Amino acid sequence: MTMPVSITVNGTETSHEVEPRLLLVHYLRDVIGLTGTNVGCDTSQCGSCTVLIDGLAVKSCTVLAVQGDGSDITTIEGLAKNGELHPIQQAFWDNHGLQCGFCTPGMIITATEILKKNKKATEQDVRHGLEGNICRCTGYENIVKSIVAAQSVAPAKKAGKAKKGTA
């Protein structure tokens, strides 16, 4: 038995017939081919499968694809726009916020929610917000540094574009 699902992923509507037990992470990876969302533990411990569902960071290994029906989902592939990295992605690049990169998509997606909720997040706020994400390589120092640094990147880019358009 299959069920129909229609999910907007990174701004594109997708519709498929899926088994009711199919996890969202496997829908994203195996059905529509977006492999940036990683499968780490299948038990919701590591956070490498984190995506934004209707703007909220959610571990996609804990959600069935049919539960996502009608939702708007953003994956790591959906953050960059017009070939430009999202400010958080750029901050991870600039501040060496990754080593092997396996946890990075989940960290970046989680960071978007952290900074959306708290425009002036402190290092402590970031560390608390990342509690559901595990990195086995970095020790978190550069991850936290990257997220804190991203706060100053985003407003500067917007201000720069506004000035350019008014000149």
Characterise this structure.
The chain is an alpha+beta fold and 167 residues long. The protein has 2 domains: 75 residues, Roll (Ubiquitin-like (UB roll)); 73 residues, [2Fe-2S]-binding domain (DNA polymerase, domain 1, Orthogonal Bundle), CATH 1.10.150.120. It has a 5-stranded mixed beta sheet, with helices on both faces. A hairpin with a 2-residue loop joins strand 1 and strand 2.
CATH class type of the largest domain: Alpha Beta
- CATH topology call of the largest domain: Ubiquitin-like (UB roll)
Instruction: List the domain count as a whole number.
Output: 2
- Uncertain segments of ≥5 residues (pLDDT<50)? 155-167
> What's the overall average pLDDT, rounded?
90
Strand coverage percent: 5-15%
Features:
167 residues, alpha+beta, Ubiquitin-like (UB roll), DNA polymerase, domain 1, 2 domains, 5 helices, 38% helix, 15% strand
Structure summarized in a few sentences:
The chain is an alpha+beta fold. It contains five helices and five strands.
Topology of this protein?
Layout lengths: L2 E7 L2 E7 L5 H8 L18 E4 L2 E4 L12 E3 L12 H8 L9 H14 L5 H7 L11 H26 L1
